[in-house]
Amino acid sequence: RKEVEQDPGPFNVPEGATVAFNCTYSNSASQSFFWYRQDCRKEPKLLMSVYSSGNEDGRFTAQLNRASQYISLLIRDSKLSDSATYLCVVLSGGSYIPTFGRGTSLIVHP
Amino acid sequence: ETGVTQSPTHLIKTRGQQVTLRCSSQSGHNTVSWYQQALGQGPQFIFQYYREEENGRGNFPPRFSGLQFPNYSSELNVNALELDDSALYLCASSSAPGLALSTDTQYFGPGTRLTVL
User: Which end of chain B has fewer surrounding CB within 10 Å, N or C?
Assistant: First the structure.
C-alpha cells in the first residue's frame, strides 16, 4: 500500500458545483498535512495547511480524520480557474519527510 | 513569481552521463529542498539543505547528491544517469529551518525538465 494515496480523477464538474477530494495515508504517526495546487506545466503552490479541527479559507475547506487516516479538501462554488491538480502532502512523524500524493485532477467546465 | 529560479529549464542527456542542476533561493531563504516529479506523479522528496548541511533525505540512491553554497543557492548532481531519471526536478526554498517547519512555507521554482535517452 502506498504511503499517501489519491484518486487521480479527473473530476469533471460544472462551474458552481461543490467537489470534494480525499487523500488517505498509511502512517498513523503522521504529524502534518497540507494541500498543494499544481497548474499544468507549472510548479506546485501551497493551497492550505490542514489542522486537526478543520479549517476554511474562502471557498476551500480542509478536514482531517485521524481515525480513518484521511484528509479531505472541499471546494464550493467551483470556478473555471480552480482547474488544476490538487496534491496532498503528509509529513511523517519523526523524520518529517514530506510525502506527496500523485494528485487529483480537477476540470471545471462552463 | 516566487523568486526561486532554476537552470537550465530543459536538458537532454544519455544514459551513464552526469548532470548538475542549479537553484537560486528566494531572497532571505536559507533552506532548499529538491524533488523529483515523474510524469503523472506527485513530487518525490530527494533531500533538503539547511545552512549548507544535508538536513534530511528521501529514498534516493547515493548517485543523487547535492550542495548548498554560502549564498544559499544549491546544486543537485546526478551521476550514472538512468532512463528512469527522466523527470521534472523541482527545488523549493524556505526561510524556516528543517522539514517540520518548511513544508508550509516553501516556494517552488519552475523546475528543470530532464530527459535521459
Answer: N
DSSP label at B89? E
| Interface residue B84 vs chain A (CB under 8 A) | no
Query: Under a CB-based contact definition with an 8 Å cutoff, are residues B111 and B10 in contact?
Result: no
Task: Using CB atoms, pick whichever of A43, A95, A98 lies closest to residue B110.
Answer: A43
Smallest CA–CA distance, residue B19 to chain A, in Å, is: 21
Rounded Cα distance, B83 and B116, in Å:
5
Q: Tell me how close the Cα of B24 comes to any Cα of chain A, in angstroms.
A: 15
Over the stretch A27-75, which tens digit does the pLDDT of each residue have?
888 889 999 999 998 999 999 999 889 999 999 999 999 999 999 999 9
3-state secondary structure at position B85:
helix
Q: Which residues contact A58 (CB under 8 A, 6 or more apart)?
A: none
- d(Cα A83, Cα B92) in Å, to the nearest integer? 23
A30 burial level (CB within 10 Å; 0-12, 13-18, 19+): buried
Residue of A nearest to B34 (CA): A98
Q: What is the CA radius of gyration of chain A?
A: 13
Residue B102 predicted with pLDDT over 90: no
Instruction: Decide if B100 and A96 are in contact by the 8 Å CB cutoff.
Output: yes
Collect all residues of chain A within an 8 Å Cβ-Cβ radius of residue B2: 43
Please tell me if residue A2 touches chain B, with a CB cutoff of 8 Å.
no
What is the average pLDDT across B50-54?
90
Q: What percent of chain A has pLDDT over 70?
A: 99
Single out the residue of B46, B52, B32 nearest to residue B77, CA to CA. Answer: B46
